[in-house]
Amino acid sequence: MGVRIAGTGSAVPERRLTNDDLSRMVETSDEWIVQRTGIRERRVCDPSREGTFTLNRDALRRALEAAGMQGSDLDLVIVGTCTQEMSCPSVACRIAGELGVTPGGAFDVVAACSGFVYAMNVADSLIRSGRFRSIGVCGGDAMSTIIDYQERSVSILFGDAAGAAVLVADPDPRRGCIHQQLGSDGRDWTPLYIPRRLQEVPEADRDNPIRMGNLRMNGREVFKFAVSRFRQVIEDALQATQLTPADLSQVICHQSNIRIIESAIEKVGLPPEKVYINIDRFGNSSAGSVGLCLDQLWRAGKVPAGKPMMMVAFGGGMTWASSVWTV
Ligand code: UT7
Fold it and tell me: Where are the beta strands (DSSP E) in the chain?
């Protein structure tokens, strides 16, 4: 049994938060942010009508439209996110309920920025098992709901977005995910976490002015982790599939920071024209980033059938994931 991407979709809020807007809120500048991150603006939700649920729902609705399918055609919805409005029900359950997937299954995957790639890998495996025929996969975060905008170390980086793909069973077993890796190292999760209670906060971080429920990040530590992990994960995937960068149509990297992506391009020898970048316009949208890139590339006809493409992400947990697909 193979797996086909029948359609993709994405959703971003209308409201733009530019670097100049941020420089009026904290001590920073457009020049610093562009140089250190590659970001010029990001999208942020209007909390009165948008959030993680609406972004992921709209992304999946568009993916279904692109596939010419309806919610009732899906057996399961999986949403990668770490900004759920409620811990229960899951975002996936609410989407399934609204889009008519009932009584199909629904669950969220929490792997921070790796969420979409985690969800794609799980969905591919479930369809290959023969137990599911069609799965709606979403990845999306409303990071603006967990960002302290007084803190320049986090506020400049993140934006809100969601991406989605509808996966269906295909008789050609060569189609779908041909290599996947799901990884984690929870021995030290402190570089990036979202605490709810003081009990979980490490002693050394108890004075942190960032409120409970908001994201805390040691940017330098995450940066070091990301640079080495990206390289390793991409090299592992190339080795396992016996592919070279020239064989791939696209390498879709989590839009974490332009310098992290550029280091992967340089260290692994990826052709820059095959590494899509939209961080300048959307910032780092956590679990939204890879799915948003996939949808933009898909609609532009840049993920051709028959040629492999790779998706790769890392995030809090710490987590990482890769997924090589023949579409
Ligand atoms: O998706 C996964 C989640 N996270 C990531 O991928 C984040 C990975 N890390 C990063 O992207 C970068 O570490 C940041 C963009 C967060 C920070 O960039 P950096 O180059 O690592 O800066 P830094 O933290 O080492 O700070 C350098 C200097 C410091 O000043 P001094 O000590 O050299 O005087 C900071 O206080 O820049 C200062 N600084 C700022 N200045 C203006 C830190 N943030 C800002 C800011 N505006 N927003």
Answer: 2-11, 16-18, 41-43, 76-80, 105-109, 134-142, 160-170, 176-184, 192-193, 216-217, 251-253, 308-315, 319-326
Catalytic residue among 82, 138, 177, 254: 254
Ligand 1 closest atom vs CA 220: 13
Q: How far is the CA of 223 from the centre of ligand 1 (A)?
A: 9
What residue type is 197 in one-letter code?
Answer: R
| 177 tagged catalytic | no
Q: In this structure, which amino acid lies at residue 72? A: S
Domain count, the chain: 1
Tell me the pLDDT tens digit for each residue of 170-229. 999 999 999 999 999 999 999 999 999 999 999 999 999 999 999 999 999 999 999 999
In the structure encoding, which two tokens stand for residue 69, read together? 């399918």
Report residue 187: phi and psi, to 5°.
-70, -35
CATH number of the CATH domain containing 211: 3.40.47.10
Rounded CA-CA distance 144/149 in Å is 9
Closest ligand 1 atom, CA of 257? 11
Domain that includes residue 191, residue range = 1-327
Share of the chain above pLDDT 90, in %: 99
